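TICKET: design request
STATUS: open
ATTACHED STRUCTURE:
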């Protein structure tokens, strides 16, 4: 069910900005009228005056209003905003498809058809929950991935354009020139240390703390994923769109990923799968707040605030969310029923599957 999105509280956002409260990182972006730049709330730059700022629900919304990303706080390193997952399952599923390149290969009407809604309705939901159209969201994701690759890899400009989902190097250059007022090559301020680019592309995927890394790795291993000495690895097959391999290691606040792939065009799709597999978009504060209202879950959530629900590599991002057994479902759990069931599973192992969509025991 899609419910109205709560509007941003400008005064609360400004308080978070002045205190650089990391809990709000990725939940909103600050648009500075005097500079034309948008920033994360944790940006180390001098705090602008209240009358000189506006707040946007997403990076795409900020760019749609004509603001360009801050080069200092790097919006591409902000955690994914998980709050929309509590408001609209349709937006959640659409974002997963966009992240995997759905709008690189088709248009909004085709995306809406995959979700079982009309194109006009999908655009309305995006405006309501993210403040930007689906096409603008897709464009922002391409730009932010390209920025991350410019900063963290030694790939050539042509390969970065390909990996980020731009149709051509010309389009890549034009987009960066329009947004930053300079070509992408001018944003590569430092060279990656010699040898760092060998063995694959390396990226740090942000996540929100607390994050129970040991639980996630144990659940992934139990689900059949390869996990050895704290490192997750997957060998790619033709069904993944490319040959090669992925390796990931969890670190405080991020997942360090190395990707060696034969076709860089599938990188966005692979990154979307990795984020889903490790549940990197979860917002533990919002999930814990909602689930703690249920007395069956309050103590469990308090004891394990970093619990995550691991995904499946081959899960369909367009599929409806997990539906819990009628015997245990509670309206207050929605849309976090997967987390509620995971908290209860340790006490009642046969209550729910380990991963969303798996067969129950």
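STATUS: resolved
RESOLUTION: sequence designed for all positions
ATTACHED SEQUENCE:
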């Amino acid at each position: 069910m899609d419910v109205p999105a709560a509007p941003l509280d400008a005064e609360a956002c400004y308080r978070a900005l002045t205190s650089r409260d990391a809990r709000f990182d990725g939940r909103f972006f600050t648009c500075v009228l005097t500079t034309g730049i948008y920033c994360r709330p944790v940006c180390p730059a001098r705090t602008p005056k209240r009358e000189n700022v506006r707040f946007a629900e997403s990076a795409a919304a900020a760019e749609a209003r004509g603001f360009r990303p801050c080069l200092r706080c790097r919006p591409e390193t902000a955690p994914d905003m998980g709050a929309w997952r509590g408001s609209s399952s349709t937006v959640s599923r659409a974002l997963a498809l966009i992240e995997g390149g759905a709008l690189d290969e088709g248009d909004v009407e085709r995306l809406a058809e995959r979700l079982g809604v009309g194109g006009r309705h999908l655009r309305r939901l995006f405006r309501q929950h993210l403040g930007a159209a689906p096409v603008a969201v897709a464009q922002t994701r391409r730009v932010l991935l390209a920025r991350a690759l410019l900063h963290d890899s030694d790939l050539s400009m042509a390969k970065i354009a390909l990996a980020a989902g731009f149709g051509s190097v010309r389009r890549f250059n034009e987009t960066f020139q329009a947004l930053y007022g300079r070509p992408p090559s001018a944003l590569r301020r430092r060279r990656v240390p010699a040898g760092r680019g060998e063995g694959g592309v390396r990226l740090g995927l942000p996540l929100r703390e607390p994050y129970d890394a040991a639980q996630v790795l144990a659940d992934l291993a139990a689900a059949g994923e390869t996990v050895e000495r704290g490192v997750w690895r997957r060998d790619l097959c033709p069904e993944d769109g490319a040959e090669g391999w992925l390796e990931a290691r969890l670190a405080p606040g991020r997942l360090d990923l190395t990707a060696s792939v034969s076709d860089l065009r599938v990188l966005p799709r692979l990154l979307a799968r990795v984020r889903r597999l490790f549940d990197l978009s979860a917002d533990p504060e919002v999930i814990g707040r909602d689930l703690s209202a249920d007395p069956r879950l309050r103590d469990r959530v308090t004891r394990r605030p970093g619990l995550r629900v691991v995904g499946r590599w081959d899960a369909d991002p367009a599929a409806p969310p997990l539906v819990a057994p009628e015997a245990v479902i509670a309206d207050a759990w929605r849309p976090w029923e997967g987390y509620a069931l995971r908290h209860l599973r340790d006490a009642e192992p046969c209550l729910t599957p380990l991963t969303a969509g798996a067969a129950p025991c």
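CLOSING REMARK: The first helix runs from residue 10 to 19. The radius of gyration is 20 Å.
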